[in-house]
Structure formats: structure tokens, C-alpha cells
Design goal:
There is one protein chain. The protein has 287 residues and is α/β, with parallel strands linked by helices. The protein folds into three domains: 9-48, no CATH class; 76-139, Roll (Ubiquitin-like (UB roll)), CATH 3.10.20; 144-272, 3-Layer(aba) Sandwich (Rossmann fold), CATH 3.40.50.11690. Helix content is 39%, strand content 22%. A nine-stranded mixed sheet has the order 6-5-4-7-8-9-10-11-12. A three-stranded mixed sheet has the order 1-3-2. Strand 11 and strand 12 (264-267) form a beta hairpin. It is elongated, with a radius of gyration of 40 Å.
Length: 287
């Protein structure tokens, strides 16, 4: 007599089905099983040494094949945000031979080279469409000429070196500062330069004294000594006196405003000679 098979699942089969129906097993059914299946297939495929070697060679050659495609080859470079002089220095420092594959461009290394230039505050490099390497530069703006031990240099508002200057006459539009620490106090020097507008045609420069205060140097050998604090306010008073009484048009060699409550004037040689001549004449008349 033929035995009829019991349609009910076995105990083990029943437990496995119950396990797989648990909510905690849903991620395993969705992700775990496919991953395991792919791993098994990959292991079987990679078990062949020839296939492995062919795959490694294909992956190694893939960047070259892509980089040689004419639609992505880099053919030129443009420099944005830089003056013609700085753009020329950037091209010289990078010295890229075009055309070149984008995979041969080490953008991080190229950025370091451009960033090392004094006149560059920040820079970004990117390869854009039509094979153009764009160098976007934020150039430092020189605001003064600093006469230091290393010669004449252009500096920005932070006192950072922008570039060397061969001669003062190359940038007559910028104020001249000198002395140790002048670069660190450049913002105050620019304020003094703005106050000096009425006498700017006579201005020769600003000297930092002892890294504490400023001397304002004019033509005809005149010097205005300013205090350590509130130098701008003191300089404004000197300019006001000059506008009202022509102070700086007189034969005065030094206007000492280091003590704004007791300013001192030092006469020039001509005025001193005239003074003594007048005294001598007065004494002779009395005699």
C-alpha cells in the first residue's frame, strides 16, 4: 500500500520559516542574502588566476584610456582674478605642457605652487569643460611701500609682503613707511596718510620709531613727531594748525606732538640765525 506524504512541514523547516518571518530578519533578507550571493559568485569568478590578472590589467589601464579621450583632454589654462604680472608668474611656476590628461594633473601640488607666491592670498584650481584648467586667484592688494632691511617691498593691509619693488618711483601712488614694526602697524599708517591729504604733496613718508610710534617726514627737512597713543588725533591737530596758521610753511624743523598738551617747535637753521642776529642787534643798540 502506497504511503501518503504528510503535507505539514517538518519541525526544522517550520522553525526556519518562523525565523525568517521575524521583523529583525527583514534587513538580512533584503541586503544580507544578495550580498552573500554576490560574494560567492565573485569568489568563484576570482578563483581563476587568469581572470584575476586580466581584471587588474584592465583597471590599471582604464585611467589612461579615459584620459586619452579627446573630449576630456586638458588643452589650455586660464588665470582669473590676477594682474598680468602675477598671471605670468603663475604660468611660469606651473610650467604645464599642454595638451595633458586630467589624470596627470596633480591639482593639490599645483595649488601649493601657486599659493607659495607672495602676491596670492588664496587660489582654487579646477578643470572645466572644453579642456580648460582654470586657476582662480585672490590677489593681495598692495597698500603701501615698506622700506625694510631687505629693501623696498609692497605690503597689503595685513602687513604681508606682496612683492619686491625695484624703486620707489615705481609706485608713487602708495605711501612709504619705514622702520622696524612698520608692517605690523600699517593700518594706523594708512589712517595717517588719509589725514595728511592737505599736505600730501609735501609728504615723504612715515617712520616707525621703536616699534611704538610714528614720525611723519615732510620735504624741506621737516618732521612731525607723534605720540604712542592717539597718533591720528594728534596729527589732525597739526594739520588744523597748518590750515589755520600756516604752521608747516614756517621755518620749523620739528613739530613735536609726543605730548599733545605741551607741543614743542624746533626752529630751522635760518630762523635760529635770524633770532640770534636779532638779539645781537638789540644788544648792540642797547650798548
Amino acid at each position: 500500500m502506497r504511503q501518503i506524504r504528510d503535507p505539514a512541514p517538518s519541525r526544522l523547516e517550520y522553525r526556519m520559516k518562523r525565523l525568517m518571518l521575524r521583523p529583525s530578519m527583514r534587513p538580512f533578507r533584503r541586503y544580507g542574502i544578495p550580498v552573500i550571493a554576490l560574494a560567492v559568485l565573485a569568489g568563484l569568478w576570482a578563483g581563476d588566476e587568469v581572470r584575476r590578472e586580466n581584471a587588474v590589467a584592465f583597471i590599471a589601464e582604464l585611467p589612461n584610456k579615459i584620459g586619452e579621450r579627446p573630449e576630456i583632454i586638458v588643452r589650455m589654462m586660464t588665470v582669473e582674478g590676477a594682474s598680468p604680472e602675477l598671471a605670468a608668474k603663475i604660468r611660469e611656476s606651473l610650467s604645464i605642457d599642454f595638451p595633458v590628461s586630467p589624470f596627470d594633473l596633480r591639482l593639490a601640488e599645483l595649488k601649493e605652487k601657486v599659493q607659495a607666491l607672495d602676491a596670492v592670498a588664496s587660489v582654487s584650481l579646477q578643470v572645466r569643460s572644453k579642456g580648460v584648467l582654470v586657476v582662480d586667484v585672490d590677489e593681495r592688494e598692495p597698500v603701501a611701500v615698506w622700506r625694510s632691511d631687505d629693501g623696498l617691498v609692497l605690503i597689503d593691509t595685513t602687513g604681508y609682503r606682496v612683492a619686491a619693488l625695484p624703486s620707489r618711483v615705481s609706485r608713487p601712488d602708495l605711501p612709504l613707511v619705514a622702520g622696524v614694526g612698520a608692517d605690523a602697524a600699517i593700518l594706523e599708517a594708512l589712517q595717517l596718510y588719509d589725514v595728511a591729504r592737505p599736505i600730501r604733496d609735501r609728504l615723504r613718508g612715515f617712520i616707525r620709531v621703536g616699534e611704538r610710534r610714528w614720525d611723519v617726514v615732510l620735504d624741506r627737512g621737516q618732521t612731525i613727531k607723534l605720540p604712542e597713543t592717539q597718533a591720528v588725533t594728534a596729527f589732525k591737530r597739526v594739520i588744523e594748525l597748518d590750515v589755520a596758521q600756516d604752521l608747516l610753511e614756517r621755518d620749523v624743523s620739528v613739530v613735536d606732538f609726543r605730548n599733545s598738551q605741551r607741543p614743542v617747535l624746533r626752529l630751522g637753521q635760518t630762523a635760529i640765525g635770524t633770532f640770534y642776529d636779532g638779539r645781537a642787534t638789540g644788544l648792540n643798540d642797547d650798548g
